[in-house]
């Protein structure tokens, strides 16, 4: 094989393929990138056991062929080449890379587990990438890190009533994003748990101004955008029925400036004790939200003006859990609904509710000793 390509174009394609290369493994094929070129197109493929990626880039192909090379090695070489035309040739198992005055020779690998990543002959779901990326960012932080609860380490994709519902929960909070979407009827009432890492890697690959086409293929989902395809294994577990968790029967409701609340929570955490679940106490009274935090080294009090409806309330939370949900809201003002000191807080953008809003966040309070 022999092809010619601009250094920056080659580096961009390698960076995409690298997202499906294992960082720590003793399985050789999971450390490789597979190159194939023909018809003035260069294809790069990689597979790490969980994600498979194929991407295409234009190149001048002098001789069609294929090769496999260690991903970290080829990435390091190409990254350090000048911005010029790179000539790559594989002959008799030896790879020659030329660019300007640089000349590298290295051994090719004989074996690679090819994954053709063919697109299924089924109808696809289309979603704008800016919407998908924002939806991922509004949910991924609420996934669990506990591998013994495998289902909760991913994000649920639920197709129901003309919406794609993306849900993440970890036992302490729930993040729900609803996306109005047209999809084939055979997707209705179907659901898939997609690993968090797969979605994060995809969000780093795709451009905001393009679309993703989503295909189902037996137990896998295939994502396609422009010249890149990703196949990810779904998590074959049952997700928790989140609808039974989100129950908005509130007694006290406040509307507060989002940025002011984020900054106050940020300052309150300076003196919060990590050993006590990053605890903050909130007192709502006379249209004032008082945030208090203390530890052995001192204490802090933050007062914010709010629009209060309902009785006064005292409640406590993990400050980080509260702050992450507030940040995920797409509005300058947000609504917080409370029932009691022992019930969850529900957070929405202003003038919203669980029934009519595309984003809902629930966070459990921390019980305080009397």
Automatic annotation (TrEMBL):
<feature type="domain" description="DNA polymerase III beta sliding clamp N-terminal">
    <location>
        <begin position="1"/>
        <end position="111"/>
    </location>
</feature>
<dbReference type="InterPro" id="IPR022635">
    <property type="entry name" value="DNA_polIII_beta_C"/>
</dbReference>
<feature type="domain" description="DNA polymerase III beta sliding clamp C-terminal">
    <location>
        <begin position="250"/>
        <end position="367"/>
    </location>
</feature>
<dbReference type="GO" id="GO:0003677">
    <property type="term" value="F:DNA binding"/>
</dbReference>
<keyword id="KW-0548">Nucleotidyltransferase</keyword>
<dbReference type="InterPro" id="IPR046938">
    <property type="entry name" value="DNA_clamp_sf"/>
</dbReference>
<dbReference type="InterPro" id="IPR022634">
    <property type="entry name" value="DNA_polIII_beta_N"/>
</dbReference>
<keyword id="KW-0963">Cytoplasm</keyword>
<dbReference type="InterPro" id="IPR001001">
    <property type="entry name" value="DNA_polIII_beta"/>
</dbReference>
<dbReference type="Pfam" id="PF00712">
    <property type="entry name" value="DNA_pol3_beta"/>
</dbReference>
<feature type="domain" description="DNA polymerase III beta sliding clamp central">
    <location>
        <begin position="126"/>
        <end position="239"/>
    </location>
</feature>
<comment type="function">
    <text>Confers DNA tethering and processivity to DNA polymerases and other proteins. Acts as a clamp, forming a ring around DNA (a reaction catalyzed by the clamp-loading complex) which diffuses in an ATP-independent manner freely and bidirectionally along dsDNA. Initially characterized for its ability to contact the catalytic subunit of DNA polymerase III (Pol III), a complex, multichain enzyme responsible for most of the replicative synthesis in bacteria; Pol III exhibits 3'-5' exonuclease proofreading activity.</text>
</comment>
<keyword id="KW-0239">DNA-directed DNA polymerase</keyword>
<dbReference type="Pfam" id="PF02767">
    <property type="entry name" value="DNA_pol3_beta_2"/>
</dbReference>
<dbReference type="Pfam" id="PF02768">
    <property type="entry name" value="DNA_pol3_beta_3"/>
</dbReference>
<dbReference type="GO" id="GO:0006271">
    <property type="term" value="P:DNA strand elongation involved in DNA replication"/>
</dbReference>
<keyword id="KW-0808">Transferase</keyword>
<dbReference type="InterPro" id="IPR022637">
    <property type="entry name" value="DNA_polIII_beta_cen"/>
</dbReference>
<protein>
    <recommendedName>
        <fullName>Beta sliding clamp</fullName>
    </recommendedName>
</protein>
<dbReference type="GO" id="GO:0003887">
    <property type="term" value="F:DNA-directed DNA polymerase activity"/>
</dbReference>
<keyword id="KW-0235">DNA replication</keyword>
<dbReference type="GO" id="GO:0009360">
    <property type="term" value="C:DNA polymerase III complex"/>
</dbReference>
<dbReference type="GO" id="GO:0005737">
    <property type="term" value="C:cytoplasm"/>
</dbReference>
<dbReference type="GO" id="GO:0008408">
    <property type="term" value="F:3'-5' exonuclease activity"/>
</dbReference>
<comment type="subunit">
    <text>Forms a ring-shaped head-to-tail homodimer around DNA.</text>
</comment>
<comment type="similarity">
    <text>Belongs to the beta sliding clamp family.</text>
</comment>
<keyword id="KW-0238">DNA-binding</keyword>
């Amino acid at each position: 094989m022999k092809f010619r390509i601009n250094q920056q174009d080659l580096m961009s394609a390698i960076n995409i393929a690298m997202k499906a290369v294992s960082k720590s493994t003793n399985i050789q094929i999971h450390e490789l990138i597979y190159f194939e070129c023909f018809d003035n197109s260069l294809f790069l493929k990689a597979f790490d056991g969980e994600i498979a990626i194929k991407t295409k880039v234009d190149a001048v192909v002098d001789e069609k062929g294929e090769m496999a090379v260690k991903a970290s090695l080829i990435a390091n070489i190409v990254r350090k080449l000048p911005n010029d035309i790179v000539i790559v040739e594989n002959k008799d198992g030896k790879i020659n890379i030329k660019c300007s005055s640089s000349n590298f020779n290295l051994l090719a690998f004989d074996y690679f587990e090819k994954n053709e990543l063919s697109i299924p002959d089924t109808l696809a779901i289309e979603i704008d990438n800016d919407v998908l990326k924002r939806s991922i960012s509004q949910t991924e932080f609420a996934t669990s890190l506990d591998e013994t609860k495998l289902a909760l380490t991913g994000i649920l994709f639920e197709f129901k009533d003309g919406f794609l519902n993306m849900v993440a929960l970890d036992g302490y909070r729930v993040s729900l994003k609803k996306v109005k979407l047209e999809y084939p009827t055979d997707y209705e009432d179907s659901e898939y748990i997609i690993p968090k890492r797969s979605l994060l890697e995809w969000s780093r690959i795709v451009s905001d101004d393009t679309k993703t086409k989503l295909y189902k293929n037996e137990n896998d989902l295939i994502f396609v955008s422009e010249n890149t395809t990703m196949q990810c294994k779904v998590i074959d577990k049952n997700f928790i029925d989140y609808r039974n968790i989100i129950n908005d029967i509130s007694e006290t409701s406040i509307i507060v400036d989002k940025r002011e609340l984020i900054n106050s929570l940020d300052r309150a955490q300076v003196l919060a004790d990590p050993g006590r679940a990053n605890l903050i106490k909130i007192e709502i009274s006379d249209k004032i939200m008082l945030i208090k935090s203390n530890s052995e080294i001192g204490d802090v009090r933050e007062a914010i003006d709010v629009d209060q409806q309902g009785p006064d309330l005292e409640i406590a939370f993990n400050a980080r859990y509260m702050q992450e949900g507030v940040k995920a809201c797409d509005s300058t003002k947000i609504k917080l609904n409370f029932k009691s000191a022992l019930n969850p807080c529900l957070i929405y953008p202003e003038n919203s509710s669980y029934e009519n809003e595309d984003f809902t966040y629930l966070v459990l309070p921390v019980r305080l000793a009397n």
